[in-house]
Design goal:
Layout lengths: L13 H17 L5 H8 L3 H13 L3 E2 L9 E2 L7 E11 L5 E12 L9 E7 L13 E5 L9 E6 L4 E9 L4 E4 L8 E3 L3 E10 L4
Parallel strand pairs: 3-5
Antiparallel strand pairs: 1-2, 3-4, 5-6, 6-11, 7-8, 7-11, 8-9, 9-10
Helix pairs in contact: 1-3, 2-3
Length: 208
């Protein structure tokens, strides 16, 4: 799936918070992100120092950027109204592959869905395999990146043999994994090769 960052959602230092605010304001005003040189000029810093701040902010999951691509910095700001921005990474279908978004857009989620020290991302649901758990077509789920879940928990699971990603309840058996939909019209299925890519921690209604 998407490449994971190495750190969790962290707290920005005073200077990093100032840089986040500058990036956000600049992008809204101009329609594109500032370059490292423009950030450096605004704060009277060297470009290597700005690059270090931007790298730290990326590790803290407070912004993202694409290496080698100019003006690709996107700040994910923490808001005063109890929300935080995380990247919406793509579309997850019922039993189909994730449709990746090359330039993730930020989406606001309630901060109480998240905990410190972990990475989070969002996915848009396509399909009806989890409707009895209150997850409907068009909803957005919030996912915490982790490689294991307990039995019965809802997880984003990658199935290498099918090159597919799906959201299902996970149950561990002796030599296989049972993936259970929340839809009486759909049957559970079993896989031996499953990679857990995250645990679902919340859902946003499609009206939001």
């Amino acid at each position: 799936m998407q490449k994971k960052s190495s750190g969790g959602i962290g707290k920005a230092s005073k200077r990093q918070a100032e840089i986040l605010e500058f990036i956000s304001i600049f992008r809204k005003k101009n329609g594109y992100a500032p370059s490292l040189a423009e950030i450096a000029e605004n704060f009277s810093l060297s470009i290597p120092t700005v690059h270090q701040h931007v790298s730290y902010l990326r590790q803290k999951n407070l912004l993202t950027f694409e290496k080698g691509k100019r003006r690709s910095i996107q700040a994910f700001n923490i808001h005063k109204a109890g929300t935080i921005e995380i990247p919406l990474m793509g579309l997850i279908a019922a039993g189909g592959p994730i449709e990746a978004i090359r330039d993730p857009r930020p989406i606001e989620v309630p901060r109480n869905m998240l905990s410190a020290g972990a990475n989070y991302y969002a996915l848009k649901i396509a399909g009806t395999s989890m409707i009895e758990d209150g997850i409907f077509d068009g909803d957005i789920i919030v996912v915490r990146e982790q490689s294991t879940v307990d039995d019965g928990e809802k997880a984003v699971a990658y199935l290498p043999d099918k090159d597919a990603v799906t959201l299902k309840r996970i149950y561990h058996e002796k030599n296989r994994i049972k993936l259970v939909p929340a839809n009486k019209k759909m049957k559970p299925f079993y896989e031996r090769n499953v990679e857990i890519q995250g645990k679902m921690v919340g859902v946003l209604r499609k009206e939001i």
